[in-house]
Amino acid sequence: MNILILGSGGREHTFAYKIAESTKCDKLYVAPGNAGTAEIAINLDVNPIDFEAVAKAALAKDIKMIVVGPEDPLVKGIVDYFTKDDRLKKIMIIGPSGRGALLEGSKERAKEFMAMYDIPTAAYESFSFESLEAGKNFLEKMKPPYVLKADGLAAGKGVLIIDDLEEAKKELENMLSGKFGAASEKVVIEEFLDGIELSVFVLTDGKNYKILPTAKDYKRIGEGDTGLNTGGMGAVSPVPFVDKDFMHMIEERIVKPTVNGLGAEDIDYKGFVFIGLIKVDGNPYVIEYNVRMGDPETEVVLPRIKTDLVELLEKTWESSLDKINLEIDERSATTVMTVSGGYPGSYEKGKEISGIKEISDSIVFHAGTKNEGDKILTNGGRVIALTSFGKDYKEALKKSYQSADKLHFDKMYFRKDIGFDLS
Q1: Of 138, 347, 400, 423, which one has the fewest beta carbons inside 10 Å?
Q2: With contact defined as beta carbons under 8 Å apart, do 63 and 92 qualify?
Q3: Cβ(10)–Cβ(69) below 8 Å
Q4: Backbone φ and ψ of 60, nearest 5°
Q5: Can you tell me the distance from the alpha carbon of 142 to that of 247, in angstroms, rounded to the nearest whole number?
Q6: Contact 215/300 with Cβ under 8 angstroms?
Q7: pLDDT per residue over 287-344, tens digit each?
């Protein structure tokens, strides 16, 4: 079958890498893709949130399956667009409906869902500009640090953790006054949970589910988890501190109630649930839901899946995930993200990348790259992820760092302490 992947980052290159391995895939397209996807697929100059353009491309290329990488098209309703159109509804589209995507599109909705189905999470209240004073009063009753979350999508920048009460009040007002645009027209204030974070990924057909490998990513730009938040500077899978007992707790207290809740509300959900968790005093709590795979976690999770990914996605679409076994590579996988100088602030694009062909012990996943003639240039903040396998995460990381040392572009930066909190 012909398959189309929507997106242009490291996550989408990883999907392309795994889907290209499948004997079920005839022609593979990525829209818009990057220099890495161009090596194993055909890039299409199509914007994933231009649904009519996506539909025209899908019909023209006889696409049978679409895998939606980023959250924007999902939250904006691409699945509904396809499933309600007679021209398009036979195309398998992997992702939740607009109602399902609200688990990521609205922090308030996610919190209400967790409360409804007794899923453990931090205590919270949500506020609008009209209830600003009530929000400030709520902050006064809480213990620092104060967690403020823009209700809507804010490109990963809508969460503030503040130690000072007066600063928190000021930032609440700033957010409700438009600091993050429409995303912060509502703000969720929640209690701070102190623990160690991890991510659990679930593939569900709305009734059945498969739990994919766990991962831990590193969001801060600086070593020791300091500095500004980024889209992710590296990841490790599996998470060493997740034993069978803790995994059992996650499944019983979080995964099952989540999938059952989707079913109870008759939500059309055929895709991935990314559950951001925190371990507090030995117990799992949900920080957030995402309705797609994470990045750079995808770069360590998908390579560990040995089952044909296209078959898994087919079974998801057919609501028969219970009819297929999920086989996982027991080895550890790690990825180290190389980024442009200045990221996550302002940075320059168009820097020539060298050394890719010298890398042999890692899989090179392109995140922000483009072709120009016979050159590969930087085209984003996060540029290339280097994924390696090992008997444990330390051996895998050693390979990823050796590969990073072979790569070069002007002002290239990467964290040298991924996994620092796991030993």
Answers
A1: 423
A2: no
A3: no
A4: -65, -35
A5: 31
A6: yes
A7: 999 999 999 999 999 999 999 999 999 999 999 999 999 999 999 999 999 999 999 9
* pLDDT at 65 (0 to 100): 98
**C-alpha–C-alpha distance, residues 365 and 235, integer Å:** 13
Mean pLDDT across the chain = 96
Residue 367 CA neighbour count, 13 Å, CB half: 27
Query: Among candidates 245, 267, 285, 405, which has minimal Cα distance to 336?
Result: 405
Q: What are phi and psi of 106, to 5 degrees?
A: -140, 115
**Residue 5 · residue 29 · CB < 8 Å:** yes
Query: In the structure encoding, which two tokens stand for residue 154, read together?
Result: 């804010």
Q: Sketch out the chain's domains with CATH numbers.
A: 2-101 (3.40.50.20), 123-190 (3.30.1490.20)
Q: Which residues pair with 160 in a beta bridge?
A: 148
Residue 329 tokens read as: 């590579």
For 181: left if phi > 0, alpha if psi spans -120 to 50, otherwise beta; the answer is left
Condensed to tens digits (0 to 9), the pLDDT of residues 363-388 reads 999 999 999 999 999 999 999 999 99
Dist CA 338 CA 292 (whole Å):
23
Cβ neighbours of residue 329 under 8 Å, at least 6 residues apart?
Answer: 303, 304, 305, 306, 389
Report the distance separating Cα 382 and Cα 254, nearest Å. 31
Place of tokens 């590193």: 218
